[in-house]
Amino acid sequence: MKKPLIDAGIAMPAVVRNLCLCVLPSIAAGLVGGCGGGGGNSSNSAAGFINSPSTVNAATSVAVYPAGSANSNSSRIFMPVTAVGTQMLPSALPLILDSGSAGITMYAQAIFPSSMVSSSGFVFPTGATSIQYNGITVTNVQGTKSFSGTQQTGNLGFATVTFGANSELTTASVPIFFYFSILNTFTSPPTPVTTLPSYQGIFGINTAGNAIVVSGNGAPTLSICNLQSTSTCHQVSPLRYLSYGAGINTGFMLSPATLQPTCDISTWNGCTQANIFTVGLTDSSESGFASEQLTCPGNQPSGSSNGISVCQPAQFSTISDITTSQSFSMPVAFDTGTPHNSISVPAASSASFPATIAAGTGISIATASGFNFNYTAGAPSTTSYTQITQNTSFASIIGIDFFTNHSFFVDFTTSKEGFQ
Q1: Is the Cβ–Cβ distance between 306 and 319 less than 8 Å?
Q2: Of 370, 368, 206, which is closest to residue 288 (Cα–Cα)?
Q3: Phi–psi pair at 33, nearest 5 degrees
């Protein structure tokens, strides 16, 4: 059954996008012992669980699932999570691989027994400020995390996370937002999503810091979530919680993703694994890309995590309607978490730029790197569909369609992104 769900999108004030996701049941998978690629581990427990973070000594391929659909609304790249803490998951959790947000969120009821959590929240023993379960710590810090069109409510927790279809890499203990309910904020007033999505969470990998908001208060100053956090704090990419060998930069690269419109992500091997996601970058791997520096000073929140800058993922580009020759400059984010394109038109250009983009219209995105992304807008049922929002200062979003034909990297160490 298909139902309207909400896009992961950019975890910042964002344009409203009329998007939906397909209900995708969990991927059936087992935990494969050890790590693949360049990820070695210094110690494993007797049960075969990984107790220390993977060390990325070379560019390491991680198998993901690029899944499409007939109407494109469920077109995403999914990151399988095969273990959380010491808990080997009988069915891997398919999380949306999202370059438009930072941090991991997981549907709590997929991890914990009903005696511990329900749609009303976690059950804490009297006087307890945290609970432990299979190597997972859940704190009594409850908050919300907002995306475009959705707001998750849950608790801040911590655990190691093993990810990739073949359990390629494992993080150190990472902040996880264990959500137990979702509001649809496309409606006014917001309404509960009573049938929760089966995608089980979001694996946000961008360079920003995204807030878990406690008691309705934001945090303009970067405050990375930790065990001492009691108020609003920020999650950052889980890729920052790996170890990197000499000469290997923190970051990721995505190769072109062939979406599989007929695959069944609900069954093990129902979709073909794709080694299109690479963790760890070198000067050699970035060679041949058109690259640009990310904006780090002045970003809200600004600061660094483990000495690596937290940067704004949306960079200024020139957006042009090739048919009418109208153009303007606007921050643009390249976002795997969005199944369509969403162009935000500033007030100064709203009178001249078309209010709607018809199928067949040529669009050009000229980045500061010198790379131009030219595409033809499609119908609402396609990944090249382009929505227009007038009179706004929010970032424009180039979604999954870009990633089906182009390579993209983000180097956290050097604060660069690149296109090919």
Answers
A1: no
A2: 370
A3: -65, 145
Integer Cα distance of 171 and 51 in angstroms: 9
pLDDT of amino acid 70: 59
Alpha carbon 226 to its chain's center: 20
Q: In the structure encoding, which two tokens stand for residue 81, read together?
A: 């999570």
Strand 161-163 versus strand 191-192 pairing type: unpaired
Most confident of 1-10, 119-128, 214-223, 378-387: 119-128
User: Residue 103 to residues 100, 202, 276: CA-CA distances in angstroms?
Assistant: 10, 8, 20
| Architecture label for domain 315-419 | Beta Barrel (2.40)
Say if 27-280 and 315-419 have the same CATH topology. Answer: yes
> Rounded to an integer, what distance in angstroms lies between the CA atom of residue 237 and that of residue 180?
21
Extents of the domains making up the chain: 27-280, 315-419
Q: How many CA atoms lie within 13 A of 22 on its CB side?
A: 23
Cis ω for the linkage preceding 25 (within 30 of 0):
no
- Please check the confidence at residue 166 and state whether its pLDDT lies above 70: yes
Question: Rounded mean pLDDT of 303-319?
Answer: 89
According to DSSP, residue 239 is labeled: G
Q: Which DSSP symbol is given to 402?
A: H
Q: Do 4 and 187 contact (CB within 8 A), yes or no?
A: no
* Cβ contact 282:111 at 8 Å: no
Give me the pLDDT at residue 351, please: 84
**Is the pLDDT assigned to residue 112 strictly greater than 80?**
yes
Q: Is 401 left (phi over 0), alpha (psi -120 to 50) or beta?
A: alpha
Q: What is the mean pLDDT of the segment spanning 179-190?
A: 91
CATH of domain 27-280: 2.40.70.10
The confidence band for 4, taking pLDDT boundaries of 50, 70 and 90, is: very low
If we measure between CA atoms, which residue out of 104, 123, 107, 106 comes closest to residue 115?
A: 123
DSSP states of 257-325 as a string?
---BTT--TTSTTSS--EEEEEEEE-HHHHTT-EEEE-B-TT-SSB-EETTEE--BS-EEEEEEETTTT
Residue by residue, DSSP assigns 84-143 as ETTEEEEEEEEEEEETTSEEEEEEGGGTS-TTTEETTEE---TT-SEEEETTEEEEEEEE
pLDDT digits (tens, 9 = 90+) for 353-400: 988 999 999 999 999 999 999 999 999 989 999 999 999 888 999 999
pTM for this predicted structure: 0.87
Cis peptide before 238 (omega within 30 of 0): no
In angstroms, the CA 57 to CA 248 distance is 7
